Amino acid sequence: MFSFSYADAQEILTLKDAIKYALQNKAEAKKAALDLENAQYQIDEVRGTALPQINAAGSLKYNVIIPEMAIDMGGVVNKVKMGQPWNATGVVSLNQQLFNQSVFTGLKAATTTREFYIINKQLTDEQLIERVATAYYEVYQTQLQLQTIETNLNSTTKIRDVIAGLVSAGLGKQIDLDRTNVQINNLIANRQIVVNALELKENALKFAIGMPMDKDITLPDNTFEVDANIALEEANIDNRTEVLLTKKQIELLELNKKSKVADLYPRLSLGADFGWSGFGKGFPIGGDFFWPKTSSIGLNLSIPIFTGGSTRARIKQADIQIRQAQVSLEDMKLGLSLENDNAKAQIKNSLLTINTNRSNVSLAKEVLEDTENNYKNGLATLTELLDAERAYADAQNNLNTALLNYKIAEIQLIKAKGELKSLVNE
């Protein structure tokens, strides 16, 4: 991408660069990537339950008091010690699931979970791109507003200098000079307000992309591009990432229901073990000790017969969750359609406003130029000149606001088409 060599060095930050920086450095993007990485480990965990489970266990015990048992032998009761002072065991066991519907369903759910996090990362990236683009355009609009004030200030300063010369020559009025100075002071104050607002919006942009606050940035000298045809393009709501994510969530809920149903299925597993069960009067190593071997192999079958209706209740609860998610999906589609239509309407209104304000800017500029010329020739008052300057500045600010509204609506339309990533690839 790009890098910063010095804390006080300014970098030309394009929208594409800002989005790339955010996707690499912002916390949300990093967390979504970690969730995706963790999903693979979840798959590995569930897959591990379907593989053979091998365990080893051992024990060593010294019987301080050996238990005795009384045995009646022909009317004579004899006490017999049951065991030896030392006992030890060592066993290696194997367990393999042969049929367990819960495990099979869990494997499908783990794979679907990974797909869910893939879509979730895409949605996180899109939301991040939307915030960055909006913050970027707001900074640019404030820069244009500052440029308007600077232009107005330079023009008014030139007029003030002319009036000051006339006053010095005894041909002008002191009150006109004072009024012009007041106008200049107001412009300087307004400029400082906009400079402060620009700094805040630049900081907001840095935060949106995860950039340190001590980095200085500047936006390139370009203009808001307007495409009137974008409002004519149709968006497929079913391709929206939000919809795809909710559908994948419904799949997970359906698998959750299947896992509840799996509790009604029998479970069959294979078990085997091999080991030693030793005993003796002395310590196992170097003592009077015997190590007879032991081994077994068998099948374990579990058949649920009656659970008191708890399994059925869990299945019903899982089914309710699925239906709730489906209702939410339909409501989401309705809301996304509303957002799309509103963005189109905003685009159309912004285009009309942009055209009107562009005409106003041209007209206000002509009026200002004529008024300046008339003022120099004594055909216009200072009030008329200052009013003309103010009208020109207002027209420019209105145009910049209309352009900002257009760009924000444009982002929503691009989002509706599921093409926010195109802002990175431009």
Task: Describe the secondary-structure layout.
Elements: E1 10-12, H1 15-25, H2 27-50, E2 53-62, E3 68-73, E4 76-81, E5 86-99, H3 101-168, H4 174-209, E6 216-218, H5 241-261, E7 267-280, E8 289-290, E9 293-302, H6 310-376, H7 382-416, H8 422-425
Helix pairs in contact: 1-3, 2-3, 3-4, 3-5, 3-7, 5-6, 6-7
> Distance between termini?
15 Å
By DSSP (H or I, 4+ residues per run), the number of helices equals 8
Supply the CATH class of the largest domain: Mainly Alpha
Strand content: 15-25%
The Rg value, from CA coordinates, equals 40 Å
Query: How does the helix and strand content classify structurally?
Result: alpha+beta
* Gross morphology: elongated
Fourth CATH level, the homologous superfamily of the largest domain: Outer membrane efflux proteins (OEP)
Instruction: Please trace the helix and strand order, writing H or E for each element.
Output: EHHEEEEHHEHEEEHHH
Tell me what the CATH architecture of the largest domain is.
Up-down Bundle
- Remind me, CATH topology of the largest domain? Outer membrane efflux proteins (OEP)
Biggest sheet, in brief? Answer: 5 strands, antiparallel
Proportion of helical residues? 55-70%
Mean pLDDT, all residues: 86
The quaternary structure here is single chain
Query: How many domains in all?
Result: 2
Count of beta strands: 9
Keywords: Cell outer membrane, Coiled coil, Membrane, Transmembrane, Transmembrane beta strand, Transport
Main location: membrane
Protein name: Outer membrane channel protein TolC
Subcellular location: Cell outer membrane
